[in-house]
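Example: Phage conserved hypothetical protein C-terminal domain-containing protein.
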Amino acid sequence: MSRLLIEEHPVMIIPSLAVKLGVNEAVVLQQMHYWLVKSTHIKGKRKWVYNTYKDWQEQLPFWSERSLRRTINSLEKKGLVLSAMFNKSRMDQTKWYTLDYEKLAALDGQGQNEQFSARDGTVNGPIRAPEQVSLTKPIPETTSENTTERIHIPFSEVIEYLNKQTGSSYRLNTKRTRELIRARWNEGFTLEDMKKVIDLKAAEWLHDPYWRKYLRPETLFGTKFESYLNQKPVKKVWREEEFNLDD
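Written out as structure tokens, the predicted fold is:
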């Protein structure tokens, strides 16, 4: 059988949505919806997902980055896609996205019926997953495991920071390391939380011949991660040999 015939995850859309908005717009909406269902990032009482145009293009490689930029801009103008900048650094221009599910419901003729409420995709009350909005089935990941994970979980930033702070050389692609970081990320911990744990334990263990061997991913990001995060900074105990008494 030809490799071009359903040998990988298909991209599915609802024809009526494609008729109303265009094929490109329908596909991009579905892909954003897929990630919003999985997202744990809540800002302004909405779920958000962040990606660069390059990241979107890697997920949908049959379009150019320019085409995706044009499609997303079209959806933003229609008010169906909302975007914002939540990054602490002004140098970080990664855009955050969410969908206006109320406008999507109106487009679909649902209005404010019982299948849809303003709480979908927001947290005015208990969070209800956006999958209730009838776009279509979520599109499975269409890229490699590494690309999919990199979009949502800052593996490289965590490992690079760990190596920098501890003088280690842990590899980014180690499966067990990625599983640990992913598990903590899925529990709602952030990049800043992981950096804080690295800093706290490095200050405590780095210069101790016995304990410094535990400055490793399986210890730092394991089941005791939250207790490490909430511990108080350890005060340095100065030793006589650390002073130059000849000065």
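The first strand starts at residue 41 and ends at 43.
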